[in-house]
Design a protein that fits this description.
Layout: E1 2-6, H1 13-24, E2 27-30, H2 31-41, H3 44-55, H4 61-76, E3 81-84, H5 90-102, E4 110-115, H6 118-132, H7 139-153, H8 155-161, E5 166-170, H9 175-193
Parallel strand pairs: 1-3, 1-4, 2-3, 4-5
Bound molecules: BIS(adenosine)-5'-pentaphosphate (AP5).
Length: 194
């Protein structure tokens, strides 16, 4: 299976992607995690992107495309992928689509959109800040990340809807119920395509 999660910060992309990866036997590729690993390792890329992550701005498209391309191609050989956080701009989506058209069997099969309102994601992220202290989970940065999502990532939903790929899920329910709804929707989609 080859999936993409599109949802605002704190909507549950990482939580659900991890479960879906284990359920369907595919790789969970989180662009945010890969970028945070680069920062923690103090690599050249990490030094270049640290300030973007701290501010809640998107890092340049070229950087994420460079980091993600090989893991995506590797995952295709081993059960597929669930992409958590990439593509996140129209330019990234168009570039990913251009590459995918050249290699058989790597194109996205579904885009899972978790619908969660701003008040709920703010509540979740502030609770996570108290537990884990992620540096971009502050009130001001959360507000900025939500603005960035609405301006730069939300347009992806119309782009992928135009390709018939979007599955809308109510992400404000308990984790288990969100997961069950996603699996139901994906299994129906697969059955319909057989
Ligand atoms: P990234 O790591 O992708 O952060 P994000 O999109 O802000 O997402 P989060 O990890 O905060 O939330 P999530 O939706 O995964 O929710 P989660 O499951 O964790 O990106 C970080 C930064 O990296 C970006 O700001 C940018 O700078 C850069 N970046 C990344 N990708 C990029 C790209 N492609 N291009 C350019 N820049 C890029 O859940 C959140 C909390 O809610 C958790 O505590 C969880 O336990 C809880 N929770 C989850 N589900 C539920 C539920 N159903 N009910 C109650 N609580 C729940």
């Amino acid at each position: 299976m080859r999936l993409l999660m599109v949802a605002p910060p704190g909507a549950g992309k990482g939580t659900q992607a991890a479960r879906l990866a284990s359920h369907y036997g595919m790789a969970h590729l989180s662009s945010g995690e890969l970028l945070r690993e680069e920062v923690a390792a103090g690599s050249e890329i990490g030094r270049d992107v640290a300030a973007y992550l701290e501010r809640g701005d998107l890092v340049p498209d070229e950087v994420v495309i460079e980091i993600l391309t090989k893991p995506v191609l590797d995952a295709v050989e081993h059960g597929g992928y669930v992409l958590d956080g990439f593509p996140r701009t129209l330019r990234q989506a168009e570039e990913a689509h251009r590459v995918a058209k050249q290699v058989e069997g790597i194109e996205l099969q579904a885009v899972v959109h978790l619908a969660v309102g701003h008040d709920e994601v703010r509540r979740r992220l502030l609770a996570r800040a108290r537990r884990e202290g992620r540096s971009d989970d502050t009130g001001t940065t959360i507000a900025h990340r939500l603005e960035v999502f609405d301006a730069q990532t939300r347009p992806l939903l119309a782009y992928y809807a135009g390709r018939g790929l979007v599955v809308d899920i109510d992400g404000e329910q308990p984790v288990e119920k969100v997961f069950a709804d996603i699996v139901d929707a994906l299994d129906s989609l697969r059955a319909g395509r057989r």
